[in-house]
Design a protein that fits this description.
Blueprint: H1 6-26, H2 31-38, H3 42-50, H4 62-72, H5 76-79, H6 114-118
Helix pairs in contact: 2-3
């Protein structure tokens, strides 16, 4: 039996934090707007993006992941790091992706349209800004260590 190491979760939580932040910024959403659209608190989203929950790493419930995925219009597995790998050590994922399955369409990496961002309607398909042709869009993720904090603006 493989011994579970609690420090593994910190690395997966950090990768989840980077995925959430990158996808939120890619869609052009602020933490406040994502909170409004998802029905979650801005504080929860901030904690997830910093991988913090009190003195421990963030550990969201499954419904939270699905709410965020729905609003960001991505498969839930794109938020979750390492979903296509056996957990045998710390998370090595550095970018949000699903092996061979995402992104698959031009709008997968496009920001939401300003009109869609301004409306508070979440029960319809999102509208996207003009996307770059598939294969040319790049997502560059800032590499942060698990304890590093984002600069206040």
């Amino acid at each position: 039996m493989v011994e579970y190491h609690r420090w593994y979760w910190t690395s997966y939580g950090h990768a989840l934090a980077n995925n959430l932040r990158s996808l939120r910024e890619m869609r052009g959403l602020s933490q406040t707007r994502l909170a409004q659209l998802s029905g979650l608190s801005r504080n929860l989203i901030s904690n997830l993006e910093r991988n913090e929950s009190g003195a421990k790493a963030a550990d969201p419930v499954l419904s939270t992941v699905y709410k965020l995925a729905q609003i960001l219009y991505v498969p839930p597995g794109v938020l979750l790091p390492g979903v296509d790998e056996v957990i045998a050590g710390p998370c090595a994922a550095t970018t949000p992706h699903l092996q061979g399955r995402w992104p698959v369409a031009e709008h997968d990496t496009a920001p939401f349209s300003p009109l869609y961002l301004a409306r508070a309607v979440t029960d319809e398909l999102p509208e996207f800004a003009a996307p770059e042709p598939l294969g040319t869009a790049e997502i560059t993720l800032p590499k942060r260590s698990p304890g590093e904090r984002r600069r206040k603006r």
